[in-house]
From TrEMBL:
<feature type="transmembrane region" description="Helical">
    <location>
        <begin position="424"/>
        <end position="445"/>
    </location>
</feature>
<feature type="transmembrane region" description="Helical">
    <location>
        <begin position="355"/>
        <end position="374"/>
    </location>
</feature>
<keyword id="KW-1133">Transmembrane helix</keyword>
<dbReference type="Pfam" id="PF18940">
    <property type="entry name" value="DUF5687"/>
</dbReference>
<protein>
    <submittedName>
        <fullName>DUF5687 family protein</fullName>
    </submittedName>
</protein>
<keyword id="KW-0812">Transmembrane</keyword>
<dbReference type="InterPro" id="IPR043742">
    <property type="entry name" value="DUF5687"/>
</dbReference>
<feature type="transmembrane region" description="Helical">
    <location>
        <begin position="141"/>
        <end position="162"/>
    </location>
</feature>
<feature type="transmembrane region" description="Helical">
    <location>
        <begin position="201"/>
        <end position="225"/>
    </location>
</feature>
<feature type="transmembrane region" description="Helical">
    <location>
        <begin position="280"/>
        <end position="297"/>
    </location>
</feature>
<feature type="transmembrane region" description="Helical">
    <location>
        <begin position="380"/>
        <end position="403"/>
    </location>
</feature>
<feature type="transmembrane region" description="Helical">
    <location>
        <begin position="309"/>
        <end position="334"/>
    </location>
</feature>
<feature type="transmembrane region" description="Helical">
    <location>
        <begin position="21"/>
        <end position="48"/>
    </location>
</feature>
<feature type="transmembrane region" description="Helical">
    <location>
        <begin position="103"/>
        <end position="129"/>
    </location>
</feature>
<feature type="transmembrane region" description="Helical">
    <location>
        <begin position="60"/>
        <end position="82"/>
    </location>
</feature>
<feature type="transmembrane region" description="Helical">
    <location>
        <begin position="451"/>
        <end position="468"/>
    </location>
</feature>
<feature type="transmembrane region" description="Helical">
    <location>
        <begin position="169"/>
        <end position="189"/>
    </location>
</feature>
Amino acid sequence: MIFELIRLQWLKSFRSTSFAKSAAVTGLLIFLAILLLSYVLMAGLLLANIIDKLAEGQDPIFVVNSSLIYFFLGEFMYRYFIQKLPVIELESLLHLPIGKRKIMNILLGRSFFSPLNIIALLLFLPFGISKVAEAHGMLGLIGWIGTIVLLSWSLHWFMLWFKQKFEDSFIGLVVVFVVLILGGGLSYLGWFNMGELLAPLFIYSMTSLIPVIGFLGLCILTYFITYRFYLNNAYLEDLTEEEEVRFANQSVGFFSRFGDAGEMANLEWKLIIRHKKSRSYLMLSAFFLLYGLIFYTNPVYQDEGVSAIFIFVGIFITGIFMIQYGQLFLSWNSSNFDFFINRRNGIESLIRGKYLLFISISCLCFLLSVPYAYFGWKFLLIHFVTFIFNIGVLIHLLIYVALWKPKPMDLNKGAMFNYEGVGAAQFLIIIPLIVIPYAIYLPFALLINDYVGLAALGSVGLLGLIFSKKLININVKRVLNQRYEVSSSFRQEV
């Protein structure tokens, strides 16, 4: 039965009209996985030397055990964003005369063969051989590395359950935020160190096999919970259960004041809420609002003036959604683009509606960034200036570049490692994002002072706002001129 399912999966991939493209993408991903795993192994081989230099005079084993909890919190995060669910394969197998229990075991077992599940082993086994085995013997090494690996594998099974049940929901978002806070916020604020609280557990695993036996039981338990959940919900209507319709159909009353453009902005907002990929971009935008904490609290950038790096940080924070979502400007509407072509003023209303949505969410991002004033009023000034520049100038430049040969995509697929809709234009967008703001800011900042540079940047953004109608018309006319070419490319198979 296992070989039969493997044969069916192979035939499905081989007979696909996009087999060559899928094979190329798979080959690239395999190469990247091998490259990243080699970096992890190299880090594992050098871990002991790194600890000796960073924590000179301290016991390296205690330092690693005190930091392991942060590794697992980080593993929770990257598994949440990267680890894939086996639901799509399930949809293609339920109609076959095969028992659901066998399908579940095979799908869950296949999901286990992932590069993510050997990261912990590659990273900590070399350190365990060089340090733990020397201090506690082979039995201590087995107990210690077994505890780490089994906890990592337990996270694998837990994440399959967690993502299927809570992904893209408010509960899931709250849990991820809590993990972020536990991972760095509490230690940064000095409230308590989670690593030191849980270090005795990993230290005990080097002298006793009780922890490894306990985590083996946890691994089996999480597999059983995931298996039962998938088995009990092994129906298409359950595994593809829609979000609460009332929330998905909720309109933003503010947009209704802007006529057809406001109507299109409301439709675009509903598109974002209803579909997996667009919701992922919205959630990531919320996470990236914390980007400033990396730089604004770094002593390297603490001076009396305005560090040049803060300009990029301000543009990123106040325009993150516009940058992420706007780079695929028309690809979001690839499945219904013909509808806008056949509607009177449909294209113009669509473009203006997107502008309205981008500006509104950028305004919200700016308001949410106001608490950065806690680190200094200059950060609020930087955010205000970059916000004006974003909605006055950068938004038009990003959309102009994004309109170059847009590609179709499936909205229901996740955002991580999904390259549908991505072309050369999405890589070129980085040029206006970095080059143009600094081309305006730096000459004034270097010749006069930093605040004159900010004034110049804000003035250019203000001019963009004054002439916004003419700038919007440029992109509207561009879409109208190439609407049939774009419509034809959207009909191609993704």
